[in-house]
Amino acid sequence: MKFKKITLLGVLGLPCPNTSYIQGIKQIHQAITIVPKLNYKAKRYTGGILLWCLLCSASIALAQPNFDKAKTISDKTVANSPEITSGARGAAPLKVGDKLPESFWQQEHTVYANGKTTIQTLEQYKGKLLILDFWGRYCVPCIEALPKLSQLGEEFKEEVKILSISDFDSEQSLKQGLSRFGLAKLNLDFGLHSAWLKKIFPHKRIPHVVWIYDNRIIACTDGDYVDEKQLKAVLADAAYALQMPQKNDFEANVPIITIFKSKLTRYQNIGPSSNGINFNKFTGQKSFVVYNASILSLIRLSLEFKTIVDLGYFDLKVNDIGQFYFTDGYYSDWEKLNTYCYEASFPNHLSDDQIKHAVMEDLSKWLKLMGLEYALVKNVDNARKIGIKVKQVEGWLHE
Q: Quick one: which of 249, 226, 232 has its CA closest to 141?
């Protein structure tokens, strides 16, 4: 092998302390570029040459006068730095009782107040009771509470700071919203939408209020607990905050209990079904169902809890009798256009008789919403039913 002396020194990682960084790199480059030109026997040393190139790089770095190993940081340190974790993606949710990280106070927010928008941190409020009020443009209680928050913020301005975090993502949309609500001149600090704050203070329902005091989260409540009485109590003793009902939108294992629900839908393409009162052993609830019934069947069901229809039993004042009763053509085609399904669920403790009366009352409400007026017709002495009178009124939804 015929190497230049300077190249061999570079490969062996032996640059002298006076070797500059650029000179050392040039030596390494010469060693690497010469490898493909080696003959067969010399190529046996290729692996060793490349390894020495790496060691040489380290020696050059250590030889630099501005290299200080004590000042280097690992990838793990960089990944956990405030610069990285300050984004919404790296933020960790906090709960009542948690101490706030320093990054919370250093995070910058866009704040609109007194007609001006500024970028600021929350560090200036460290010594106060800080209240973060999360609200949205479609939340009526949230909007109605804003004047109260403004008044409280002025009354307790020496000890309390209220920052109202909106769902508006620009100054223009916020100003337009406040103007639309008649609150354009409100003396209150508004924060624009912050994914970072939403991430560390997660919630599903608004208003959502986070109480912060002495660098800790002392409470999370609904909006109506921000009043003069509660503020005075918390300022006197921060522990009082825990006596307020705590809002938890993410409480686990809370079953949704259906007390009563009903729905009226159009024709459903289903097979034979068991109409009437049923019991679901999986949910422990009773239900009442009737599928693909005509309007006249539903009317009689709501009055007499019967579904059999005899056209002669009805006195109809309607525009199109074909929407109420099958007259000609193919029944399957008529059924798809003119029948309905009613479903209702009930707690298991109700008796069948209670369910019967509940169905009759609820179904009559549905039919009246559809634009129907109807009633039982009786004879003169009011002793015997002789039929049902039906009138179609404005608002008929079947069209």
A: 226
